[in-house]
Predict the 3D structure of the following.
Amino acid sequence: MDKKLHILFLNSWYPSRVSPNNGDFIQRHAEAVALKHQVTAIHVISDSKLKNSVEIVEFTLNEVRTIIGYIKPIKNPLSKLFLYFTTYLNLYKKADNIDLVHLNVIYPAGIFALYLKWFKNKPFIISEHWSIYHEHLFAKINPFVKFTLKIIAKNSKFIAPVTKNLGNSMNKIGLNGNYHPVPNVVNTNLFVPNKSPHKEFIILHASNMADVKNVPGILNVIKKLELLSLKFTFYFVGENVQKYDKLINNLNINQIKIVNHLPHSEFSKLINCASVLILFSKSENLPCVILESFSCGVPVISTNVGGIKEYFPENFGKLINSDEKQLLDAILEIKNNFNKASDKEMHNYVVQNFSPESICEKFSILYNNSIL
């Protein structure tokens, strides 16, 4: 069976006016699925600026019908849960005749997925991106949430973490289910190699600047490169870049260009100008920026954490430990004598594994097997 289905993307994270970049990788999954299926995406989020209890906003973007419920913040946890649930119920009623629920990030939206399964006979699959399932982080979650996560996972048809590594972590902590990893998606029509030769050595870091990204370690290495009198420009890109202004000034870094968050259309141009992308994270699952860099034929230096190595061919860059000397040496190797795969080989690898068409096909198999 291979027919067009109506898929409800039920999202714990999703871009909104409150948090425009939160879960944008989920939005890209929805847009990939919409190549073949009807997709309605729903999301509920608190908005401190809201005057009424609830506001519902509906629009269609890239063939995905999107319905977002904004609710007024409530301190009482039971009242908050009730308002979330009733708002999700109102959004669901607008969706009309869905065949399957695609839950994105188990908690908290998975509570509503359980309701739809138990009372509306709607099966669901799960896509998971959250790093909280790694054992040292999961220990900090309260018992109620742990119990709820396990019940939701057990009731799903399939669990599709973005990497095998994440799936193994989930399994290890007792989230039993039928695991079939499906990675993140890349717009391979936008992220394409640019054949213009590089006139200078450009180092790029792009992220949300969270603590887990270990940005201070990157900045320390950039300063060491300056002290070696290396000619380069470091592009420091992302939301919240200003939080590192003081450190940049204290280190007296000069060969740096600071850029706030860019839309994909602009970021694809910048990544094509780069000689190398660097990530120095303490933990990760599968950063989209690595795949986007590969798609442009730009090599990557990254710490070997999470599931990154599952999708990191040897001649596409360098995997290192969380060690500043290793990062420094890897940058120098990329500049001086790295035998990189061709731009075409790197781009084709991404097309085959992470293009919207490829991801849509992977999800379609899970969808069809879920409604048999």
Notes: The CA atoms of residues 190 and 264 lie 8 Å apart. The domain at 202-353 is CATH 3.40.50.2000 (Rossmann fold).
